[in-house]
Specification:
single chain; 375 residues; alpha/beta; seven-stranded parallel beta sheet; two-stranded parallel sheet; globular; binds NADP nicotinamide-adenine-dinucleotide phosphate
Length: 375
């Protein structure tokens, strides 16, 4: 019996195939290929993996953030059939960060299967067919009426990710495929501005719209926690499907807003100071303020979305996922945001514009009982 198996069996965990405490350092450096690697999650994975003694290669078209982590090996190509640069090479594991179309996943998996023993596919919780109730990894996934569709949009993204998972598993077999399904990935370098909107908005100071109720649940995953979990799966050659996000009930919208205000006061000290005005979901809906896009991170837990913030993370937690305090994520995100180019800071890709926010705040104020003025 190997030392690791002995330790696991004494902990009673061998049969569950989980390791709750990661080794301080990988036993030996792995050679890891990342399909993608240069946008948001990839650099966090690469930095974490490198710090643990692994060697990285990025495969991409050379279009996105071509200058990031320049000392990491690059192979140029395209998932859409131009994979020649990968032929004849060996790696210990591949992380597929850029699979959105099942044909692309099948092409890379087939090419790599003989020379790379472990395939980790980065999927999404968007695979689930319904969010009307809580999902775990065994919940039904969404299906496309026409499975040959390769157009990736809001309708097809989730079901296509489910087909990508199947494509990887069909080639590698379930014993050599790890599927991770992240929720909203947040933290420094996020190219979507969704979570970033909140600390950025607080840093502008003044009264701002906060959606629904401070108790409304949310789920997120810091890219750095996700990176550490993914690399730990490779180090342990773990297969299986894992939702990767903060467990239900860990964080609320109130936490996001409060921590954003605290971080803004600490790093910027804006004047006037930031003050959240909580506006109920129905008032926002009546003024076409959309959850998620206008009020990022937040979806009211009702109707078809009642289970949106109730996705089980139990399996990943048991397998060693750690969730850092939200204050750390918020503060680091704001610190990163503050040093972005002016143009990026001025025009965030998510959240209410200052003009719309002012309209909503005025409408909300006008709808409230006015204080009686003594004659
Ligand atoms: N953001 C979220 O909240 C969220 C939530 C759940 C799941 N996810 C998943 O997380 C994953 C990570 O995304 P990321 O963008 O941060 O990963 P990343 O690995 O940092 O960047 C994506 C990479 O893919 C490359 N790429 C794109 N199209 C390509 C093509 N046709 N051929 C070769 N390379 C290509 C890009 O470079 P080039 O453009 O230079 O080729 C880039 O290097 C995605 O699978 C996403 O679905 C994200």
């Amino acid at each position: 019996m190997q030392r690791r198996d002995f330790l696991l069996s004494t902990l009673g965990l061998a049969t569950a195939g989980v390791v709750p405490v990661l080794p301080a350092r990988a036993e030996r450096g792995l050679r890891i290929l990342i399909l993608g690697g240069t946008r948001f999650l990839g650099p966090h994975m690469a930095e974490y993996a490198r710090a643990r003694g692994h060697t990285l290669t990025f495969f991409n078209r050379g279009k996105t953030n071509a200058d990031v982590l320049p000392d990491i090996e690059r192979i140029q190509g395209d998932r859409n059939g131009q994979l020649g640069g990968l032929a004849g090479r060996k790696w210990d594991a591949v992380i597929d960060n850029s699979g959105y179309v099942p044909r692309h996943v099948r092409l890379s998996a087939e090419l790599l299967r003989p020379s790379v023993p472990h395939y980790l596919f980065v999927s999404s919780v968007s695979v689930y067919a319904s969010f009307a109730s809580a999902n775990d990894e065994d919940s039904a996934v969404g299906r496309l009426a026409d499975e040959s569709v390769e157009r990736v949009d809001g309708e097809t993204y989730g079901p296509l990710k489910a087909l990508c998972e199947s494509a990887a598993r069909a080639v590698y077999g379930p014993e050599s495929t790890a599927i991770i399904r992240p929720g909203l990935i947040v933290g420094p370098d996020d190219n979507t501005d969704r979570f970033t909107y909140w600390p950025a908005r607080a840093a502008r100071g003044g009264v701002f719209v906060a959606p629904g109720s401070p108790d409304d649940p949310i789920q997120v995953i810091d890219a750095r926690d996700l990176a550490a979990f993914a690399i730990s799966l490779l180090e342990r050659r773990t297969a299986g499907v894992f939702n990767v996000l903060s467990p239900p009930g860990t964080f609320s919208m109130g936490d996001v807003v409060d921590e954003s205000v605290k971080a803004a006061r600490q790093l910027v000290d804006p004047q006037p100071p930031p003050v959240a005005t909580w506006i109920p979901a129905d008032f926002l809906a009546a003024r076409a303020v959309a959850p998620w896009s206008d009020m990022p991170v937040w979806i009211p837990s009702v109707g078809d979305e009642a289970g949106f913030a109730q996705v089980s993370a139990a399996r990943a937690m048991q397998a060693g996922l750690t969730i850092r305090p939200l204050a750390d994520t918020v503060t680091d995100t704001l610190r990163w945001h503050l040093q972005r180019p002016e143009a990026e800071r001025q025009k965030l890709k998510a959240g209410l514009s200052p003009e719309r926010e002012a309209e909503v705040l005025t409408a909300w104020k006008d709808s409230r009982p006015q204080p009686q003025v003594e004659p």
